[in-house]
Amino acid sequence: MDNIRIFQNEQFGQVRIAMNEDSEPLFCLVDVCKILGLRVDNTLQRLKEDGYYRIGVTDSLGRIQDAYFINEKNLYRVIMRSDKEFAITFQDWVCDEVLPFIRKTGGYMIAKPEDTPEELMARALLVAKDALKRREERIANLEQQTVLQSEQLQVAAPKVNYYDRVLQSTSTYNINQIAKEFGMSAETMNKKLKELGIQYKQGGQWLLTHKYQDQGYTKTRTHSYIQHDGKSGTAMQTVWTEKSREFIHGLFNLKNTIVTGVKELSRIYDNMDDLGKKEEVFSEPLYTDLSKIDAMYDVFRSVCCKSKMTVYDRKKFLFAVVLLYCPKTLAGKKMKSGLREKMADVLNIKARTALSDNVKDLVKIYDSDSDFKKDVSRAYKFITKNITPDINNPFLLRLQA
């Protein structure tokens, strides 16, 4: 870890900041909790272990004491736990001033009233030296990654070339040719493919089941033959493409043992179908008219707030409105055009880009914090019962129950 630096603000006081090996800023948890009126022990329990570090700091008596430092994602989680009115202002200061300065210079320097120009210059050179050192370390790490990736590409090259040939190939095979590659007869191969639910027989021809149709696995050819009475006849024959040949090789090993069982294949496809249906239904919002958000805000304040609107109340309202207007955002998709700006205006949030980051963190809090989940559900119900939805989506409306 790099030496600890101090960010000073007249309104909030000081926040100690260190940099990890990846040149990412780490914020002293004690300082942040002191500003936001939170208990360190309770706050620490709600953070992910891979997002905080123990770093030695010097106390007022000159002793080295371990202190917890948190990364940027955990910082936002801590800010959202605070009910202090200035929590949003504190977040704006971090997003608009602190982080941009660190990312631009690689460090931070506090000018003291008693500092002479020479002292300021000397300290500035130290900050610049640290920034250059971190830059050189990043370059060295990137060079190592480049070498590793080059080695991985060399290993993967034969496989990549094979897939290129598969995708571009126009070759076809009858089932007898493929079966011989596994030391079995065409009859045995057809039987195994049928057991796997890949094909079925109809009118003397093997056809793919619905799950495997339109995958580019087979083609149909017409071939001529001489009947027993000497007359010529025609029949339809299924042939397999290079893509399906690779697919079949993936199902069998060289000892003719099925790699993936029928039940597992069916389970995977069934789950995909279910997820697709849920996505299709859930992606449609209940509201499209952004002007209704003002009325929602009034309803929320009158029903869900004890007195004045706290930071925690803003979190509940933000999550509920995003769910109503753009549920896909909660799954990582881009927020609907105009929604972010409208919510920033209603909630009086200056750093609008930070609002999107807040939504991502709120999703994680919603998944892990049962109290937050209950409060959001309550807000959701009151809003949808008092403000008529623009779209009739039965699936989402069931959440009111």
Automatic annotation (TrEMBL):
Residues 1-106 form the Bro-N domain. Keywords: Coiled coil. Residues 125-152 form a coiled coil. SMART domains: Bro-N. The keyword Oxidoreductase does not apply. Pfam families: ANT (PF03374), Bro-N (PF02498). GO terms for molecular function: DNA binding. The keyword Coiled coil applies. This is Bro-N domain-containing protein.
